Amino acid sequence: MTAAQIADALSEEDLERHFEQVIARDQRIEPRDWMPEGYRNTMIRQIAQHAHSEIIGMQPEGNWITRAPSLRRKAILLAKVQDEAGHGLYLYSAAETLGTDRTDLTERLITGRQKYSSIFNYPTLSFADVGVIGWLVDGAAICNQVPLCRSSYGPYARAMIRICKEESFHQRQGYELLMTMMKGTAEQRELVQDAVNRWWWPSLMMFGPPDADSPNTARSMAWKIKRHTNDELRQRFVDMTVPQAEALGVGLPDPELKWNPARGHYDFGEIDWAEFKRVVSGDGPCNAERVAHRARTHSEGAWVREAAAAHAAKQRKEAEAA
Ligand code: BYC
């Protein structure tokens, strides 16, 4: 009996029970396993948003490739931006195992029907922003993504292992760049401080709305898609980053940031959730520019997709003839 025949012979309740047991045993759900529609849709939503974030996330740093201050910095930045493209591709492939099509997902992105991370709607005003994105944005991404290596959907969890290795390298390159600038001139130190002031709060918003306003967390935790809540990961990021800021010699723009010995964590000020909502709903400083650029490059790449499809069709025909 094939897996499909066994699945046909089982009732919906049997399948659901088996799915719940796999989750309870901390095993992985694989593409051909039965899964509830809600689980499938949640996975498609999260993986697609994640893939879109990687691809749109190439733009803010890509802005500095032609103006990197040395050949070494240019080579590093080029490699990093190419890594983000690779992450997007693994993730679109993972989403396709759930029965979606990446062309359709891209259409949804450029028509505003699917989201991408709010962080990429802010401009990169100086080369220090490249370092701060590596340190804070990749740092926040690692905090959020390391637990996703244990996510219950197999292809997503496996993609995340490689992505996290590369993200941690990105984070270190950002920190190293900032260390270099902080040892430079007063003007370079000012550029770093200005970039930190602009990126700190948006980095905290990357973790999503507060738990009380997060409609998806409870369900995603029960399905072990998410392993920690948004607020837990945000706190972990703050606790990890404050000592790094001290070592670097930069201030963080929050007068309420203070170690709380009773909690064993840093307290921090209130995030501007109105700004978060504005940016997520399309009205951030660079939303229109980011999506327009993606739409343009997608249409400019149409001939490549057509050529690849024609080549694949030719190879299929030749294989059939042989
Ligand atoms: N921005 O119920 P919630 C990178 C949405 S790229 C925009 O808490 P969930 C990098 C959320 O999707 C790394 N939207 O949702 C690349 C939901 O929307 P819908 C990107 C946000 O899913 C290049 C609604 O708000 N990382 O590292 O349980 C260069 C309610 O939220 C945001 C990922 O994608 C946001 N910040 O939790 C450098 C990580 N936050 O569809 C670096 C994977 C929330 O229900 N994703 N929303 O209307 C996740 O871990 C989770 O999806 C989230 C949100 C923690 C982000």
From TrEMBL:
Which Pfam families does the entry link to? PaaA_PaaC
A GO cellular component entry from the record: cytosol
Task: Tell me the domain of life.
Answer: Bacteria
Write out the GO MF terms. phenylacetyl-CoA 1,2-epoxidase activity
The entry's keywords? Oxidoreductase
Name of the top EC class for this enzyme = oxidoreductase
Is Oxidoreductase given among the entry's keywords? yes
Annotated GO biological processes are:
phenylacetate catabolic process
Report what the protein is called.
Answer: 1,2-phenylacetyl-CoA epoxidase subunit A
Q: Which gene encodes it?
A: paaA
